[in-house]
Amino acid sequence: MQAATIGFRWAVFALLLMVAAQAPALATGARLYLSVSFVTVSGLPLSDHAFDLDQLDLLPQDRIITATPWTHGPQSFTGPPLATLAGLEANRGRRVRAVRVSSWADWTVTIPASDWERLNVILATRLNGQTMRVRDKGPYWIMYPIGDTRDVDTQMYQARMMWQVKSLEFVVE
Which InterPro entries match (predicted)? Predict the structure, then answer.
């Protein structure tokens, strides 16, 4: 019985060490990779990509100036459009239907392709020109131009504005 307790304590200790090892990266946003994958509607994997901030910066960038419920006054958000990221697989003749966005806090939201086809939805990598720390909703934040049109400034679209994004899983036909 005592050996099992010692084994359990070592397992907990090892787990804490693993979490502690990731803490500096999570706190500073250093070299946090964004996983971008493509799957079929039935879940069959098609491709996987991993981007760090430098690689995301090589993609076309857009800017949205908008106020959000989580910021004070209009803010400037920059980053690659979701349409650009969706196009990584679309160039192979497949139509992207949606993207499942997951966060470091284990939240998930699904965004239909019609959103980025109709609106300029971006994966924000910067807020007012500065990279975002995880504790400040970074390193990546899905941003909608909610100030541009009244019909976008709703709870439905605000719920899709996931922050602390760690992965994008595009669902294709």
Answer: OxRdtase_Mopterin-bd_sf
